[in-house]
Amino acid sequence: MTQKQFKEDLLRGRGCCFQAVKIEPEKFYKEVLWACRNELAFDAQCEGTRAWFLYQMISCYENRDAFLNTTIRAFDSAKSDGGWKLLYLAELLNYFACDGEDTAKQALWRKYEKIHSDLLASRRRTRTFAYTRDDFEMLCVVLAENRGSAIIIAKDIGKLYLENSNFEASDFQWLYNSKIVKHLTELERLAIRSKNIMKLLQVYAPVEQKSEELPERKRDKPKSGIALSVWLRREADQATVLWYAEEYRRQTDPEARAIALVAFCRCPFPDDPTPIIKDTKIGCDNLKRQAWEALAYTRHTLVRDFALEMLPDHLDEALPILIKNYCPQDAPLLVRLVKAVSIEHDERSCWHSVHFDILHMDADGLKAPTELIRYLYENTYCSSCRAHALEQMGKRRLLTREILLECLFDSNDDIRTYARRCLNRRKQKQTGMQTD
User: Fold this and answer.
1) Alpha carbons 395 and 378: distance in angstroms, whole number
2) Does the structure show a pLDDT above 80 at 221?
3) Alpha-carbon gap, residue 398 to 415, rounded angstroms
4) Whether the Cβ atoms of residue 120 and residue 159 lie closer than 8 Å to each other
5) Burial code of 340-356, b = ≥16 C-beta within 10 A, e = fewer?
6) Residue 272 scores a pLDDT above 60
7) Most buried one in 78, 93, 346, 370, CB count within 10 A?
8) Cβ-based neighbour number of residue 103 at 10 Å
9) By the 8 A CB rule, do 296 and 268 touch?
10) What is the model's pLDDT at position 283?
11) How confident is the model over 218-235, as a mean pLDDT?
């Protein structure tokens, strides 16, 4: 593996990176060091930060001082900007701290004190305030790993509520539910002597009571937008769906027609799609955009013919339509088109939605070309998509022992669990055969 390929697979989160570092640690030293100051995850909210993934590689090195110091510097200079970098670096430092590195622990608490002080001094709920508050909550979740730390954090959160009216109960709901609530008995005892803890309990007591008393709400039909389209697809009867189709057809004004067509941006159009096909060529940009999107959720021979006609000049718009209307004879074309879509970590193209559509073709009773499933596993930056690809490779009996061993060190926890299960099942089967 070259350094360039290694860096690409770092951003993908593939376990082959750990295998490469274990064999040739010095060859990939600079790339691992680079990862100590740069985010790796494509979507940390769904995948996690990949801190565990990187720390496995760092652990392959006898001297880890450079990795630790680089991470601390990056963490100290990290700004609250609405991203996930601070959480990533905090989790990475926490692995160092759990392995006995006191400087990592000190860096975490130093940042904690700094952000807490900034929040105490904040007097307006600006965007910067929200970013800082979110980073502080994430840092608290990392640090509240034991009773002592959780109580310290509970006191400091209570102080924020007590001294700054800018805060609301919902500001630290995730922290409270995931960490603080585990220590309620101890906190109630300490509240007698701590006005900060007492304030925290007072803030969240009404929230807990309200959640317990809240009756199950009956979901009303959404009035418009994507929510309406999802409702039509999942819950509405055929007569209702047909009524919305007629409502779209009777509109003559392009903007009104576009608004009506939103009802089918997730729900398949139930009738002749010819009007929608025509609307992709109307001058109104909004109507054209909605028409392309509606066709991407509609299966019909006319829609497939239209997609083939518009390829490759309208690749971004027509490819999702072809995927939805795939026929086995389209396999060579589909493979060629999907591989032609450029894949960037910052998703400047439509690659992620294309990969998602390919991996969910089975929901329409379609079987994606095997070559594409392998391709997506090896090339996607989204580890959630890679997990779907891996499961489909398993169903098609494409998983070699080498692939499963690589997956044991993947950045995605679901992939690691799946690989362990597959390997254990094979081991048990092999042991049973030897016993027989």
Assistant:
1) 17
2) no
3) 15
4) yes
5) ebebeeeeeebbbbbbb
6) yes
7) 93
8) 14
9) no
10) 80
11) 81
- The 10s digit of each residue's pLDDT in 138-161 is 999 999 999 999 999 999 999 999
Residues in CB range of 3: below 8 A, 6 or more apart: 27, 28, 30, 31
What is the identity of the amino acid at 98? C
Length of the chain: 436
* Mean pLDDT along residues 232-256: 93
DSSP string, 13-63: T-THHHHHHHH-TGGGHHHHHHHTSS---S-HHHH---HHHHHHHHTT-S-
What pLDDT does residue 206 have?
67
Condensed to tens digits (0 to 9), the pLDDT of residues 334-361 reads: 999 999 999 998 876 789 999 999 999 9
Distance (Å, rounded) from C-alpha 231 to C-alpha 254? Answer: 24
Q: Which of 235, 151, 165 shows the shortest CA–CA distance to 194?
A: 151
Other CB atoms closer than 10 Å to residue 59's CB: what's the count? 15
Peptide bond into 312 cis (omega under 30): yes
Alpha carbons within 13 A on the beta-carbon side of 251: 19
Tell me which amino acid residue 396 is.
Answer: R
